[in-house]
Amino acid sequence: MDKQHLVIFDTTLRDGEQSPGASMTKEEKVRVAKSLEKLKVDVIEAGFAISSQGDFEAVKAIAETVKDSTVCSLARTTNMDIERAAEALKNANSGRIHTFIATSPIHMQYKLQMSPDQVVEKAVSAVKLARNLMGDVEFSLEDASRSEFDFMCRVVEQVIDAGAQTINLPDTVGYGFPEEYAETIGRLIENVPNADKAIFSVHCHNDLGLAVSNSLAAVMKGARQVECTINGLGERAGNAALEEVVMAVRTRRDIFPVETSIDTSHIVSTSRLVSSITGFPVQPNKAIVGANAFAHESGIHQDGVLKFRETYEIMKAEDVGWSTNKIVLGKLSGRAAFAARLEELGTQFENKADLNEAFVRFKALADKKREIYDEDLQALVSEVQVSGSDGDKITLESLEVISKTGQLPHAELTLNYKGESYRSTSDGDGPVDAVFKAIEQLAKSNTELKLYSVNAVTAGTDSQGEVTVRLEKGGRIVNGQGADTDILVASVKAYLNALNLLANPDRLHPQLAGV
Ligand code: KIV
Ligand code: ZN
């Protein structure tokens, strides 16, 4: 069977970032974008340029860094949005403006308060403006799965005439059902007279756990672009997971009429990078990238796999990058080897002081831990990028925790802020509780702790623990990260990281930035 190309459009940096607490700095976004480029995604939706200065800068930086993937910015149908997206993308090798407006009766009536005619007019004029500024334009009919079929046909025909080359039909609220959603896409392609001039795309949310199924069903009916995110990150229950869509198409090549250009061997490293930067852990039983995805517990399964792998495995772990977990550096590795490995992992520090800081941390880690893996380096880079050499942040100077059976744990710590040392002590219900209470006595942040989680970065008891602390204040949610072989130190780092992020307005969630 002759395969057609399935465009993989990754929106981890835009829709993924809309997960509460998943906001990323510009440097973190550039790292993810480089990893996506290595993965060979066709289109990287880098952000929503108008939503904040931080998002604009991130889209611009990604457009200037990424060479092999198309870089895209989201824009509503207003002139301001579209011009801002074009400005952010102006240095891209290949740029795309993605403009959207809602087409469902409920959105048009209550949210937009616009008539269907007004929506058509807005859509057409937005696409025309976008095409004047950029060669590649995508148009989305937001809430397509709850829109009226005839109205969608009318909008789609007119925006294609206006110059849109990709038409996206999102299941914005995750309401679609595979056969029904796919049938609508197929009928649209058949009924819109100029449908052959555009690629039809799907963008599914996972509210009913159907995002991947809906996307794949639509591919069977003619969709040739899938919008998805690493680890299924995204607004509410998330978006279709890139790794699941790609591996389904590849594993079931006997039934899919398409193929992707994804280099699947980078899937696991990209998944880990996104998880470590956002602080959203991957559940162990998550398909493809979960720690148990290729682990066989039952004796019968183990026996079968040892005799003939395909008895119980439909994919090879190494095809998605599981076996690339190898020792990369050790105690004796020098600065050049360290910098070279970081570059291979997609990190180049713009600032020499940050590279030096990272190298000092690497040496300290290598003293505690004999074998340093890529995952350790990723965790270390995340830390330097959030704390860096910036003297404006709260940092840990020292920590002592006493925890004895039958006694309340007790913490004593010293923090540094703008060159001054501050000491605090506290008891707590557990050692972590004691430590966080001691920090709060100094910080008086008035924040609410929403999540505390610890994950081992690598296998073995000398693994670094990577801690995520999610804090909320006044509707803002941030995820702080910290990694260390001592999980109490990692916990303090994560808590301080979250406090430092809350003090940084660049981290404003797009929706809180007034979009
Ligand atoms: O879910 C959605 O409808 C979106 C659009 C902006 C494409 O994210
Ligand atoms: Zn979405």
Defining key terms:
515 residues, alpha/beta, TIM Barrel, Double Stranded RNA Binding Domain, 8-stranded parallel barrel, 3-stranded antiparallel sheet, 18 strands, globular, disordered C terminus, binds zinc ion
Written account of the structure:
With 515 residues, the chain is an alpha/beta fold. It folds into two domains: 4-278, Aldolase class I (TIM Barrel); 395-507, Double Stranded RNA Binding Domain (2-Layer Sandwich), CATH 3.30.160.270. It is built from 16 helices and 18 strands. The longest helix has 18 residues, at 116-133. The two termini are 45 Å apart. The model is unreliable at 507-515 (pLDDT under 50). The structure holds 3-methyl-2-oxobutanoic acid and zinc ion (ZN). 3-methyl-2-oxobutanoic acid is lined by residues 15, 100, 140, 142, 168, 170, 172, 203, 205.
Quick overview:
The chain is of the alpha/beta class and 515 residues long.
Number of domains: 2
Number of continuous helical runs: 16
β-sheet strand percentage: 15-25%
Bulk shape: globular
CATH architecture of the largest domain: Alpha-Beta Barrel
Please state the CA-atom Rg, rounded to the nearest Å. Answer: 24 Å
Classified in CATH, the superfamily of the largest domain is Aldolase class I
